[in-house]
TrEMBL record:
This is LuxR C-terminal-related transcriptional regulator. Coiled coil: none annotated. CDD domains: LuxR_C_like (cd06170). Signal peptide: none annotated. Residues 786-851 form the HTH luxR-type domain. Transmembrane segments: none annotated. The keyword DNA-binding applies. Keywords: DNA-binding, Transcription, Transcription regulation. The lineage of its organism: Bacteria, Bacillati, Bacillota, Bacilli, Bacillales. It comes from Bacillus yunxiaonensis. The keyword Transcription applies.
Amino acid sequence: MKREVHIISTKLMTPTPRKNYVRREKLLKKLEILHDYKLVVVKGSAGSGKTTILSSFVKENPEVAIVWITLDKENNNVFSFWYYMLESLRVYIKEIEEIFSLFHMIMHKDDMKRIIVALINILSTKDDITIVIDDFHYITDVDVNKTMEYLLKHSSENIHIVLLTREEPNFYVGDFLISGRLLEIGEEELRFSADEGFQFIRYTLKMDLKHEVVHDMNMLAEGWIGGLQLIALARSYHKNDCMQNMKVLNKYMIAYLSKEILEALEEEEQDFLVKTSILSYFNEEICDELLGKKDTKEMIIRLFQKHLFMINIDEDRGIYRYHAIFQQFLQHCFGQLEIGVQKELRLRAAEVYERSGDFEECIKQLLEMQCYEAALRKIENHGQNPQGWSYLRHIPLTCIVQNKEMAFQLIFYHYCNMEFEQCTEILNIVYEGESGHHPWKVFEFCKALIEEENLQLDVLFINEIEDMDISDVTKAIIYVELSFFLWFQERIKDALYVLDKASMLEKRMKNPYVKMGILSSLCQIKEELGDLKECERLYNQLFEVIEQHSFLSALTVTCHIGITGIYLKRLQLEKAEKSLQHVQGDEAALGKAYLYNVMELQFLKGDKRQAKETIQKLQTFDAYQNELFISSLLKYAIHVDEEYVQQLDQFAVMYQQKKEKKKLRNEDKILYAQILLQKGNIQESLQLLDEIAEFTRKHKMKVLLIEALLLKVLILGNDMQKHKRELLNLLREAVHYSYENHILLPYTRTDKQIQTLLLLLKEERLQDLNERERKFLNTLLQLGNHDKENFILSNRELEVLKVLATGASNKKIGEQLCISISTVKTHIINIYSKLHVSNRVEAIKKATEEGIIK
């Protein structure tokens, strides 16, 4: 379900600098040329003034378009982080709702790149925007850092990122440093000078101290702003010299000073600070409800005026938060309260935040008190999307599995992101709780999915999904994902069935992203079936959907890669090359799918050296080291270089293992049949090819059927006289399954002997072919290499060709050259084969163009 946001999250508010802040001329001067940089990193410890210097810059430069995001540990996952990134840009991007609709429906972490590409494209049309990300040190997640690096690398020059952090960013910034597009402000620059320390004490904190005392305090704090403030506050409450015997400013001294400050306050003030320390942000209304009072506004103002590490987030609305240094100490004090009091306050805080529309803060309060059942109910009601699911990692799985629907969604989410160990862990707990079995079919399905057994899809399973209390969007996405898994297991009928279910839901929703998912999955299935005409029509539909919805423009690249596969199967190499040109400028797409198409194109153009290099690149991808995908690569490698013999031997071992687990696909079987053929195991290869042909005929998988038929032709072609009739029947069947969709690719990986047999098919069985099949056969006869040596005809063939060019019949050619009619036919077949033509007119034209005859 899409979360409804009732208030702007305080994480997206630019803090208001305190009144009479120290104007740090040198640092502000640096920030004035912020737009000359792509990335600005302000690095310093807690309380070093990072937030203050940026917030004061924002205040003094209202004309600069700035968005502000304050992070915490909950944002350390790719969905939560980008939720806030998108939300922060809402004021500058009118198309943001369209991007959000895309965001709320993704289940794969890899799909986040699509969101970012869409965002980059839209941002490139805007004016300069600066994105300030405070507390970036919380971001340690690999996926978040990769996506941030991607945004920085590919966004246009009008986008500027400022990171406020205690640690170095966990992504590569060397390119920005080398190119002069990185501005760094470090700990040393953030430290107060003696003069700035004096201004801070005298004018900001309004403490009337002698210059030499301020100097000593500043020296002790070593220019650290937070430490200086702690020392000053402690001194203001204790007139004695609080600096006595304090040689080093460390965490023990900070704790001591904080304690001294708190105990110097009135009891009512102490109580307020400790109890409100659990709040990520607060205002008068929130504090009134939490504490059951009606006069907290006066207290907030009084404490703020005492400079007690309270940061004003929104001056107009009176929203504040505590600085991390002080809040950690206060929360330690909170932990000393009775457990019952702590729980009551946390639960009350959860209710307050929920009423104000802040789902996340509500969940965080419940999790802190381990109120897992209540947290689950909130997540189910408000957060059935990856943003809400990210909180589930804080809840014990034994609690999660009590809600079957939530457990199923979580398993599916982990499976989509290839996090199989987490899936297994959840399923083990599910089945342990049910004494080894479970009444829900969906869990049986998930178990089979994880253990890679044959998946059983039945009406009960579908009914369970339909009856789930989840949104239609989530159901549709589950169906789309299921279709992919079923298709990969070559259960085409079941895959199409669940896609039909998804389509019915989409018609109700009119959701373009769900429609894209359905069409994309259909395209993959139709391409494998060899229904290339239908597949091309579906891709054209996809392009139309993208054109109607600009926020889907990031998916254009995926469509170009997909439709290239059709062009390659038809040997429309110019179209394929042109389609790939649409991809080349987009580094987001330069992954395995793009490179695979490039490799196929190189192979089909006859450039085996480049094809080999691309295969080597593809083998660096994890997917092509995986037993599920390796055969799709090795079926080309087997043709380009003998050095792949070892890998083919490894595949043969893997094949037997997959066979035992019943995990073989027909693509694996065809490759193994080729390996058997190379090793001389002819009968075993033929038997396997017959199995493939039987399965692919039954399921109308034309491309794989054609490949199996042609490989069998190659094997039997070694004894043409013995197998002539069967060979012609096999070729006749291959042509039948190829002609309608113009499937040519399988014929390019076959022996030249196929050409001779195709000519024989034309000579002897032409009457069996319909008009379109005959036309396709002529196209096949024109395939092959066009090396000059192929055009060299024997002297007798040249004689036959010259007489043929006069329009003479076979009988007249024989009479003129004193050879039999059958010999004339043999010579003509050889001429056609060498010239790669299929009739007399084409032969004469080709021979004239090549200068073979004049």
